[in-house]
Write a structure and sequence with these properties.
The chain has one domain (3-309). It contains 14 helices and no strands. The protein has helices at residues 3-35, 45-50, 54-58, 66-74, 83-95, 103-119, 126-150, 155-181, 191-204, 208-214, 221-230, 238-249, 256-270, 279-305.
C-alpha cells in the first residue's frame, strides 16, 4: 500500500471518530448543565479546556458562554478540532481513497458532510441540539459498521482501525477529564451533582448498561473512572482501545518504537486506581496518557507514512 493512501485512511478514521466523540461529549455535558442548579457554578469553559483549545477560542471570542462555546465546537471551521471541520477533513481524505473502500462509504461520508453543513448552525440552539448530535453519532456508527462488515481484512482496513481506536482512546481520556475537571475538588460539592455528571458521561459512551452489568446500578465516580480507564471488554475504554491499536501495530514491520510506547501506556493503566488518587492526580495521569498518544501518533507517521523523514 502507498504510504499516502495509508495516511489518508488513518486520518479519515481519526476525523470521523473525533466528530462522533465530540457529539457524545457535547451531548453529555448539555444534559448535565440542564440537570444542574444555577447555584452550582458549573460552566461551559470545561469543554474548551478539555480539548486544549483556549488560544484558538479566545482569538475569536471574548466571552465564554453556551452560545459561543457550542458554536466554536460545532461549526467553526477555523477551529480545526470542531465537529464540522472534522467531518470536512474526513470527507477530503476519503475522497482520494475511494478505490480501496466499499462503494457505499463515499456516499455515507458525503451525506454526513452535507447533513452537518445544513444542520450544525441550528444545533447551536438547545432545542435542536440533541437530535443533531444523535444523528451524528448514528451516521458514524453506520459508517463504522460498513467498514467492519464489508472490507477485506487487509492493510486498508488495518489503518482505518488504527486511526479509529487511537482517536477513540484519546476521546476516552477527554471524557474522563470532563468528570474530573467539571466540578471543584471541594468537600461541599453536592454529591448528587457529581453523580449526575458521571451518569451523563457514561451515557455519552453508551456505557450505562455495560457499567451496570459489570459494576452495579449505583454510579460512583471512582468506579466509573476505573471503568473508562481499564475495563478491557468495553469497546470505548482506554484499555480496550489500546489493545486494538496494539493488535494492528503488532502485525506491521518496524514496529518496535510504537510497541514501546504502547507498553508504557499499559503500565500506566496497570498502576491506575481512581479510588487511591485525588482529582489532581487523575488529571496528571490523563495528561501523561495524552502525551504518549501524541508520541504514538508521531511515531506512526514517521514509521509508515513519512519514513523518509526519519
Amino acid at each position: 500500500m502507498l504510504s499516502r493512501v495509508a495516511n489518508r485512511l488513518y486520518w479519515s478514521a481519526r476525523y470521523l471518530e473525533r466528530s462522533e466523540g465530540l457529539a457524545r461529549m457535547i451531548s453529555a455535558y448539555t444534559h448535565f448543565i440542564l440537570d444542574s442548579p444555577k447555584s452550582s457554578g458549573v460552566g461551559w469553559e470545561v469543554l474548551i479546556n478539555i480539548i486544549e483549545a483556549e488560544p484558538a477560542y479566545f482569538s475569536r471570542y471574548t466571552k465564554i458562554n453556551e452560545n459561543n462555546v457550542i458554536k466554536f465546537l460545532l461549526l467553526d471551521e477555523e477551529n480545526l478540532g470542531s465537529l464540522s471541520a472534522s467531518v470536512k477533513f474526513a470527507r477530503e481524505n476519503l475522497r482520494t481513497t475511494r478505490d480501496v473502500l466499499p462503494e457505499e462509504a463515499w456516499e455515507l461520508v458525503n451525506e454526513l458532510h452535507l447533513y452537518t453543513n445544513q444542520q450544525a448552525e441550528e444545533a447551536v440552539k438547545r432545542r435542536a441540539r440533541h437530535e443533531f448530535l444523535e444523528e451524528i453519532m448514528l451516521r458514524n456508527m453506520q459508517i463504522d459498521g460498513l467498514f467492519d462488515g464489508s472490507m477485506n481484512r487487509d492493510r486498508s482496513f488495518e489503518f482505518i482501525r488504527l486511526g479509529r481506536y487511537l482517536e477513540r482512546c484519546d476521546m476516552a481520556t477527554r471524557v474522563a477529564d470532563v468528570g474530573v475537571a467539571a466540578l471543584p475538588d471541594e468537600d461541599d460539592v453536592e454529591p448528587g451533582l457529581e453523580i449526575s455528571l458521571w451518569a451523563n458521561l457514561l451515557t455519552s459512551l453508551s456505557a450505562t448498561s455495560a457499567y451496570r452489568r459489570e459494576i452495579g446500578p449505583i454510579v460512583e465516580p471512582a468506579e466509573v473512572t476505573n471503568f473508562i480507564f481499564n475495563y478491557a471488554d468495553f469497546p470505548r475504554s482506554m484499555r480496550y482501545c489500546l489493545h486494538r491499536v496494539e493488535r494492528v501495530i503488532s502485525g506491521f514491520n518496524d514496529n518496535s518504537d510504537s510497541m514501546a510506547i504502547l507498553g508504557r501506556m499499559h503500565k500506566k493503566l496497570d498502576a491506575f486506581d481512581a479510588k487511591k488518587r485525588s482529582k489532581k492526580q487523575i488529571h496528571n495521569v490523563i495528561d501523561q496518557i495524552q502525551l504518549e498518544l501524541n508520541r504514538l501518533n508521531t511515531t506512526i507517521a514517521d514509521t509508515w507514512f513519512f519514513p523518509e523523514n526519519k
